[in-house]
Hints:
By secondary structure, the chain is an alpha/beta fold. Helix content is 49%, strand content 17%. The chain folds into two domains: 216 residues, Malonyl-Coenzyme A Acyl Carrier Protein, domain 2 (3-Layer(aba) Sandwich), CATH 3.40.366.10; 62 residues, Malonyl-CoA ACP transacylase, ACP-binding (Alpha-Beta Plaits), CATH 3.30.70. Strands 8-7-2-1-9-10 form a six-stranded mixed sheet. Strand 4 and strand 5 form a beta hairpin. Helix 2 packs antiparallel against helix 5. The longest helix has 21 residues. It starts with a strand and ends with a strand.
Amino acid sequence: MKKAFVFPGQGAQFVGMGKDLYEGSGEARRLFETANEVLGFRITDLMFSGTDEDLRQTRVTQPAIFMHSVILAHTLGEGFRPDMVAGHSLGEFSALVAAGAIGFEDGLRLVSKRAEAMQKACEQQPSTMAAIIGLDDDIVEGVCAGIFEVVVPANYNSPGQLVISGSEKGIEIACELLRQAGARRALPLKVGGAFHSPLMEPARLELAEAIREADIRSPRCPVYQNVDARPWTDPVQIRANLVAQLTSPVRWTQTMEHMIADGAGVFVEVGPGTVLQGLVKKLSRDIEAYSA
């Protein structure tokens, strides 16, 4: 039975995250302090004793979750022996660093650049996202395709749970139409913009340059990437998929299905929160899932 390690994305943050690692491990403390230097501000102060508002800033949220996840994986030592890894959106960067494809400092710089680029794109055009519960994916896809506004499927989280992304007007129209189509819930999310949609194109272009310059190596195990839910070890393909990620949907349901089909029987969530464990258990009650 193979073991899959999975890494959470934005939304998993909480005040106090990583403090136990910092206080309990000299190596973790060294990595946290290195991160403070790379970022040019003491993000650890915001993580350990800031406010919810502090942690909701995209420039803080994304590096904080990345740091918590990667440093936790590092402190597992021999306990981190993955047969395969994947990460949800931002978590894909954590997965690539934990699997040795990207160095810690390079990964942190990319994540910081990603956060800044996404923040800028959000400020250029008001946009948002909404969670659609209780409809088949093809119904949601069809409704989105018929709206004369930017609105697209963004996160395929589990069967019957799909997040859509687009302009504020597009999301408003889509939510109404999807309720009429039988959605149990069509819930606008409190996010800064339309992640994983065409509205992130300015951010994609900005991040693409940084990704092209980054040193990306073959990971020690396959990394299942968001854009196609397939396992990759080729640095050229990994790089291309990372560039495409910001404007493409996160195919998390398909990723979990492929990992299970490829022999994963145990899923270990590495980082803050327990969301990913819940999603994999919705796919199969026979799968063992727990936090690192």
